[in-house]
């Protein structure tokens, strides 16, 4: 029985392979497996259980809370930190580590009284100008919090790279140097590299690195795919043909009738749409894989369906499986066609899409 509804297959053998690729590049670094946004749509609990890493990283306290239900022991780093003393206490009770990116957060830690000291990372703005303490604030809070009973000493120092995916932009080296030059940095654990930093910049291969997208087999560099770096796609999104029509030249397809058949053609309808996370802006010509063959999207993407030109595939029938991205059809390519990045595609898989796991570990 074919699967008539969208299903995202999450291949944990590929996930573990990608982690091994990372470990080869940074054999001397410790790894935070970044599992924010439900592990970029791959299922945070399952991904965490499969990854042999010393720590996991999420963006927010709520994500840490949820992950702690299944991941009992590993440190969880909250990349965005928390914003109240109550939340510091909750994070400490959950055995979380905190990024501290504003003076107000640092001040709260200084004032609070914790039963046991918490591990923290001073997040420094070295050039991204989004989150982070200034270099001067970082230097002075480093001294202050190194001698604070609430904090495990010494704090770590971290920074986030703004443009590491552009290999010609020297701002990445400048950012790394700025972090390393903070007075006292030599005595602290440093955390710099995201996926692009790990792959592209020697300087970013710090004591701790924070790979996200490359764990999932996707390249952080535009115009390339994960396979070029030895990575394997972890998510494959599939659905199947739910209807087939024989249209005449001049027939208009779908909403708005924006696509008009230039000649007689066989049109296939696939059960996936933007309500599942397929990008609505995917233009005519975006490839879909049927029986290993690429067919072009035609007409507009609707909520539950897309239409494709089946003229080239004589074997297609109702129930034939279609791959939207993943094995055999890189998500990077679909993202580029739709004017976005693969991060957004995998993260945007909707709740109604069934997820199936291959070679996953049992949840504790
Ligand atoms: C999301 C995130 C990462 C992971 O980035 P990738 O590009 O997915 O590797 C690392 N560090 C921070 C602070 C992040 O927010």
Low-pLDDT residue intervals, each spanning 5 or more residues: none
**Helix residue percentage:** 25-40%
- What global shape is seen? elongated
CATH superfamily of the largest domain: Alanine racemase
Proportion of residues in extended strands = 15-25%
* DSSP summary: helix tally: 11
Total strands: the figure is: 18
Walk across the major sheet and give the strand order.
8-7-6-5-4-3-2-9
CATH C-level name of the largest domain: Alpha Beta
Structural class: alpha/beta
| N-C termini distance | 32 Å
Number of domains: 2
N to C succession of SSEs: EHEHHEHEHEHEHEHEHEEEEEEEEEHHE
CATH architecture heading of the largest domain: Alpha-Beta Barrel
CATH topology of the largest domain: TIM Barrel
Sheet of most strands = 8 strands, parallel
What gyration radius follows from the Cα positions, in whole Å? 23 Å
Protein model, in words:
The chain has 364 residues and is of the alpha/beta class. It folds into 2 domains: 207 residues, TIM Barrel; 124 residues, Lyase, Ornithine Decarboxylase, Chain A, domain 1. The protein contains 11 helices and 18 strands. An 8-stranded parallel beta sheet has the order 8-7-6-5-4-3-2-9. Pyridoxal-5'-phosphate binds next to helix 9.
